[in-house]
Amino acid sequence: MRRIRANAIAILTVAWILGTFYYLWQDNKPQSSPSSSASQTRGRGHGQKVVSGRLEIHRDDRTIPGVVHLCHQTEISSLQLLGGLDEKAYLAGKQLKPGDDPYRDHAFNLQESDRLGSERAIRDTRHYRCASLNYDADLPSTSIIITFHNEARSTLLRTIKSVLMRSPPSLIQEIILIDDFSSDPEDCQLLSQIPKVRCLRNGRREGLIRSRVRGANTASASILTFLDSHCEVNTDWLQPMIQRVKEDHTRVVSPIIDVISLDNFAYLAASADLRGGFDWSLHFKWEQIPIEQKMARSDPTQPIRTPVIAGGIFVMDKSWFNHLGQYDTHMDIWGGENFELSFRVWMCGGSLEILPCSRVGHVFRKRHPYDFPEGNALTYIKNTRRAAEVWMDEYKQYYYSARPSAQGKAFGSIADRLTLRRKLNCKPFRWYMENVYPELRVPEQEAVSSVLKQGGLCLETRGTEALGLAECRTIGISRPHSQRWELIEPLLRQQDLCLAISAFTAGSKVKMEPCNAKEPRQKWKPKGTALQHMVSGLCLDSQTPTGPPVITQCRPQMASQSWEPQIIT
Ligand code: UD2
Ligand code: MN
User: Fold this and answer.
1) Interface pTM (ipTM) of the complex?
2) How does this protein sit in the membrane (predicted)?
3) How many other C-beta atoms lie within 10 A of the C-beta of residue 311?
4) Is the minimum distance from the CB of 187 to ligand 1 under 6 angstroms?
């Protein structure tokens, strides 16, 4: 008897040791499958914002092997879930006709999407440690907001069903569909037969920005969840995001966005080491987390701070969304709103993060399948110009240098958004650059040679220190000239001498002195056609054409403060 007990204890001990070893080995297992870095350029014709579908996919093998969650509550049958919707008839109502190009209408392979049906199992792509995290039992519910314009029925229905099947039912208050004036109203209407699904149709094409605001305004839950209309949410996607927002309502959180192939609809795990970034043309890109942050991450389930979000899939507290001014509803159709929202969230007291334990698949496309009434290039410029003009302060110059075609293009009035920024007491873009996105390099400035013209007169130096206005003279190539200025922000330069104020008070004279980029008295920036001294906030003023130039209160309309730079080539 005693021997049998001893044997049993020995067997259990060995099993326990083996189990522990297996666990540790799993934890340290190297990523075995090669990363298929099929980095693909996603040209959209106009070269604007493209969510390059993180096509540098690193398959993360620390995911949960073989676990396929189809349904959160397996007892809910697909039939119950759909209420009165006749799914077969809905899908059959719109199908590819033989001989039609399957990519034509949606810029993805419609034939493959239709073939898949409305639900399918997908791999749980999270790090395996995510499965053992716990979330509050009393998480608040959310309103899911999905806006669409001519979405394919099969992708739209799969998006909705994946939400209903892979979310705890108590967390889904409602799914609000905003049909952005699609050709067939039934695409949306028929879906409102599904329990919890509501359908709002725009009376004209509004674009995704105004459509989302409409959805948010009718949402009844305290938390908003935005989704594109061609997604599939993965196991336990929602709880991590709601948990983070519940803990701190100023957080705006998004999942890791997995890739659903636009060709064969394979569900592919995206790398867990990416965050959202951009270049100065306001072109969104996925980028590696900075190395120091990567080294400091000991726990792969921890949130990743991100300078910007891709834009389509995020969770945000409703009152915080409203407090921060929702969206800029003068932005049209598509694009730029993700920068505007991201800058605003960071600069006005919130934060943005990507949660690795939340995964949502999305069909990334190479072109827009829909039209832009004003043309897609002009629309993108209008939207990003609005974001740059309202939020980027003096850094907007880099946007204009990177996107010269934006200069002079119409972008409407931004007065309301500037008032909002002031009311919310938001930090300057410089703060964002220093604290949120220090990795974004400010371009090296090339000196621009120019004269500074006021009426028919030009600003010139006299001797080594003094300045004045005089008749503009012809300037020969490359020879020093008292009327030639090099503009290298923040300096206004002539050889080794720079324009400086003599004191910080209104009425103080300006003079030339040896250049020093760190000297606060030498820092200038353009303000309309005026030249503003950055520290005192006063503007360069000629007073009278004969008197020496001084600095005075900026008054944009004043002729004596207007300095038209005329570039010398
Ligand atoms: C990305 C975002 C998208 C949005 C966009 C920039 C992701 C996964 N997607 O582009 O949500 O932030 O960048 O603006 O981060 N739609 C309308 N009306 C329109 C045009 C589009 O309702 O006039 C819908 C469209 O059906 C889709 C959503 O808006 O559900 C986003 O459009 P998209 O899928 O063409 O944009 P995407 O994913 O390239
Ligand atoms: Mn999309």
Assistant:
1) 0.99
2) Single-pass type II membrane protein
3) 24
4) no
The end-to-end CA distance of the chain, in Å, is: 102
Does ligand 1 have an atom closer than 6 angstroms to the CB of 284?
no
From residue 47, give the alpha-carbon distance in Å to each of 42, 107, 223, 410.
9, 17, 34, 19
Confidence of residue 68 (pLDDT cuts 50, 70, 90): very low
Half-sphere exposure of residue 407: CA atoms within 13 angstroms, side-chain side: 9
Encode 29-54: b = buried (16+ Cβ within 10 Å), e = exposed: eeeeeeeeeeeeeeebebebbbbbbb
Q: How do strand 251-260 and strand 351-362 relate by DSSP bridges?
A: parallel
- Minimum CA distance residue for ligand 1 atom 2: 312
> Which ligand sits nearest to residue 376's alpha carbon?
1
Q: Is the CB of 180 under 6 A from ligand 1?
A: yes
Tens digits of residue pLDDT in 338-356: 999 999 999 999 999 999 9
* Cα–ligand 2 centroid distance for 377 (angstroms): 18
Please spell the DSSP secondary structure of 552-569, one letter per residue.
Answer: E---TT-GGG--EEEE--
Closest Cα partner for 535 from 526, 549, 522, 552? 522
pLDDT digits (tens, 9 = 90+) for 430-455: 999 999 999 999 887 667 788 999 98
Report the sign of the C-alpha dihedral through residues 163, 164, 170, 175, in that order. positive
Instruction: Kindly write down the DSSP assignment for every residue of 306-350, as one continuous string.
Output: -SB--SSSEEEEHHHHHHTTS--TT--BSSSHHHHHHHHHHHTT-
Cα(432) to centroid of ligand 2, in Å?
A: 27
* Ligand 1 binding pocket mutation candidate from 52, 177, 205, 228 (most atoms within 8 A of CB): 228
Cβ of residue 361 lying under 6 Å from some atom of ligand 1: no
CA nearest to 179, candidates 197, 199, 160, 159: 199
Nearest to 512 by CA among 470, 463, 553: 463
Q: How far is the CA of 31 from the centre of ligand 2 (A)?
A: 29
pTM: 0.74
CB 332 less than 6 A from any atom of ligand 1 = no
**Ligand that lies nearest to the alpha carbon of residue 334, given by its number in the listed order:** 1
SS3 185: coil
Q: Is 228 a pocket residue for ligand 1 (Cβ < 6 Å)?
A: yes
